[in-house]
Specification:
Structural class: mainly alpha
Distance between the termini: 40 Å
Strand order of the largest sheet: 1-2
Order of helices and strands: EEHHEHHHHEH
Length: 168
């Protein structure tokens, strides 16, 4: 076991005490946390998956009901079996994690819609690639908030906070 002696710490000019190695190398909390930096962790979903999935779900329900597609009917029953109990629940407080079991069903709806588009449109495969690439880009875009990385406050407020209700 290595014990640090009192000589191994030093007070920095900003008043923070820390190991001597950090003072010499310049790695200090003051350099990492410049004025205007921000850090937050949020459990938000990919907007393309969540919002696009909801649109794909509603459109697939309409198309599936018109064509009597059993896969869409199965997805609809599964989605509603998760969602309806929260609609009629006497609890007035719901949390984001209550919606998480429905996200794979949104993804299945997106996949069903992309398959439907590919079968009926010449550029369907290109559209599918663009949707998947868009989901990947948005994952990278929101990665700092998903992992708690330190970023500039301006980037957090104007680049990542799309809606005023997103509190991070």
């Amino acid at each position: 076991m290595i014990k640090a002696s009192k000589r191994s710490t030093r007070t920095r000019p900003n008043g923070i005490r820390g190991p001597r190695c950090c003072v010499r190398s310049g790695i200090t909390a003051a350099r990492i946390w410049r004025r205007g930096d921000a850090q937050s962790i949020a459990a938000i979903g990919n907007p393309l998956i969540w919002w696009g999935g909801l649109a794909a779900m509603l459109l697939s329900w309409w198309l599936g009901a018109r064509n009597r597609d059993k896969a869409v009917l199965t997805i609809a029953v599964m989605y509603l079996s998760f969602y309806v109990p929260w609609m009629v629940s006497p609890r007035s407080i719901t949390f984001l994690y209550h919606y998480f079991p429905m996200v794979p069903l949104l993804i299945l709806s997106i996949v069903w819609m992309l398959r439907w588009v590919e079968q009926r449109w010449y550029y369907g495969r290109t559209f599918t690639v663009l949707v998947v690439a868009g989901a990947a880009v948005l994952f990278i875009w929101f990665y700092p908030v998903l992992t708690g990385m330190t970023i500039s406050r301006e980037w957090m407020n104007f680049g990542i906070r799309w809606l005023p209700s997103w509190g991070f």
